[in-house]
């Protein structure tokens, strides 16, 4: 379908194009030419190029030379065809014609149609498509990012594969096979499913006489060394209550071993499953007798109430309330408060007893070590917890003797000062 030049100008004015100019008063046409073919170009729905005929260039040049009107694009084109006139100025963007790259512009005849798939380029001629908006250019940041963007389908696929790379099943099997086996070994003997007993013996002299409890403001009370049971617990937290349980109970007492002689016997109960808690509580109750005197460090406020709660929740007889209990925390504070930075057991054994722990796991990390083992992790830190608990009960026996000796020294000095 062909469209006349006047019709195209009317369409452009309706589209809001303000650069449309009026047609010249007289246009010389070839003799016998079709008025529909004498326009400024030929438009088609499938065509992508617009050209103009140049056979009437001499007539238009003669008409334009005698006409006082303003020179327009047709005049410039006529002068260019005749080789006269001023040099052509650089073409504006809105006066360019789209033609195929590498295609030569025909001198006359109807315009040649281009296949839709063939690329186009701009020339210096005006186009009937000038009323359309020019293609938008990429933003500056888009141009800066072009260097890092994939330039082909293969590059894009490689990029996606890198970001979504998953381990190969065979590689995972090989990695597990070459990796060292997980350390799940627990020390001691398994008394029942999930309950482990760890025993140790430290040779040392047993106090020959009864120990006075005057350092604990119990001047008239004495205790037999073999009746003392130093104990400490490792728990799943410090909050207490029904949600906190003891997964390890350590106890030490002076004992005469037939093979090793006198010394301090250390026994530790540790559970590796939740279901073994009842067995641990029953085993600890078997270590107690009516003559047992419990000795701890802050155990009267924390360890003993926690064990009482666990006995009640397990529907077991609670044997702790009926026993005597000596808490070494309060006598230690009364005597050494202000001497060192605090009165923690680790500080007391370092400053007073001159004991330095090596590779010791802090008590605050004990819950994480036990829970890690329950979830299938390594038992290394759990063994360190057992070593920490072992050292705690040994320190309690040494601290008790030091407090008894310090109280006795003070009484001797006081008696010497009061002597005449």
In short:
With 420 residues, this protein is an alpha+beta fold. The chain contains 12 helices and 11 strands. It starts with a helix and ends with a helix.
**What is the count of helical runs?**
12
Regions with pLDDT < 50 over 5+ consecutive residues? 25-68, 89-107, 116-121
Give the strand line-up of the largest sheet: 3-4-9-8-7-10-11
What structural class is derived from the secondary structure elements? Answer: alpha+beta
Order of helical and strand elements:
HHHEEHHHEEEEEEEHEHEHHHH
How many domain regions?
2
Under CATH, the topology of the largest domain can be stated as Nucleotidyltransferase, domain 5
- Name the shape in a single word: elongated
Number of strands: 11
CATH superfamily label of the largest domain: Ribonuclease H-like superfamily/Ribonuclease H
Q: Can you give a write-up of this model?
A:
This protein is α+β, with helices and mostly antiparallel strands and 420 residues long. The chain folds into two domains: 5-123, no CATH class; 189-418, Ribonuclease H-like superfamily/Ribonuclease H (Nucleotidyltransferase, domain 5). It is built from twelve helices and eleven strands. The strands form three sheets. The protein has a seven-stranded mixed beta sheet, sandwiched between helices. The termini are far apart. The model is unreliable at 25-68, 89-107 and 116-121 (pLDDT under 50).
Q: What's the arrangement of secondary structure elements?
A:
Blueprint (H helix, E strand, L loop, with lengths): L4 H10 L42 H10 L6 H10 L14 E3 L21 E3 L16 H6 L7 H11 L5 H10 L10 E4 L2 E9 L7 E3 L4 E6 L4 E8 L10 E12 L3 E11 L5 H10 L6 E4 L2 H15 L10 E4 L1 H8 L8 H7 L14 H9 L5 H39 L2
Parallel strand pairs: 7-10, 10-11
Antiparallel strand pairs: 1-2, 3-4, 4-9, 5-6, 7-8, 8-9
Helix pairs in contact: 2-3, 11-12
């Amino acid at each position: 379908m062909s469209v006349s030049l006047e019709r195209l100008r009317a369409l452009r004015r309706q589209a809001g194009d303000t650069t449309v100019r009026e047609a010249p008063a007289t246009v010389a046409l070839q003799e016998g030419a079709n008025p529909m073919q004498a326009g400024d170009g030929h438009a088609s729905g499938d065509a992508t190029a617009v050209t103009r005929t140049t056979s009437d260039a001499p007539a238009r040049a003669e008409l334009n030379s005698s006409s006082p009107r303003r020179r327009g694009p047709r005049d410039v084109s006529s002068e260019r065809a005749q080789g006269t006139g001023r040099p052509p100025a650089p073409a504006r963007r809105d006066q360019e014609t789209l033609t195929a790259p590498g295609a030569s512009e025909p001198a006359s005849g109807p315009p040649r149609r281009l296949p839709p798939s063939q690329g186009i380029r701009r020339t210096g001629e005006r186009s009937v498509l000038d009323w359309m908006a020019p293609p938008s250019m990429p933003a500056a940041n888009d141009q800066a990012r072009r260097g890092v963007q994939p330039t082909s389908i293969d590059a894009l696929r490689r990029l996606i594969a890198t970001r979504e790379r998953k381990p190969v099943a065979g590689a995972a099997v090989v990695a597990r096979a070459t990796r060292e086996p997980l350390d799940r070994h627990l020390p001691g003997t398994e008394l029942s499913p999930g309950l482990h007993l760890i025993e140790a013996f430290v040779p040392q002299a047993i106090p020959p006489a009864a120990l006075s409890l005057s350092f604990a403001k119990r001047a008239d009370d004495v205790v037999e060394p073999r009746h003392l049971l130093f104990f400490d617990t490792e728990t799943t937290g410090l909050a207490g209550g029904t949600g906190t349980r003891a997964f390890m109970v350590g106890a030490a007492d002076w004992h005469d071993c037939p093979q090793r002689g006198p010394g301090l016997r250390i026994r530790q109960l540790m559970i590796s499953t939740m279901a073994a808690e009842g067995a641990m509580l029953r085993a600890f109750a078997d270590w107690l007798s009516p003559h047992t005197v419990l000795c701890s460090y802050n155990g009267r406020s924390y360890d003993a109430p926690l064990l009482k709660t666990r006995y009640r929740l397990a529907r077991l007889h609670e044997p702790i309330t009926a026993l005597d209990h000596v808490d070494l925390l309060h006598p230690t504070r009364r005597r050494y408060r202000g001497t060192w930075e605090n009165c923690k057991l680790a500080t007391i054994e370092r400053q007073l007893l001159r004991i330095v722990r090596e590779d010791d796991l802090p008590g605050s990390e004990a819950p994480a070590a036990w829970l890690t083992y329950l979830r299938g992790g390594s038992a290394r830190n759990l063994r360190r917890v057992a070593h920490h608990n072992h050292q705690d009960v040994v320190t309690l026996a040494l601290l008790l003797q030091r407090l008894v000796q310090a109280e006795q020294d003070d009484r001797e000095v006081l008696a010497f000062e009061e002597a005449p």
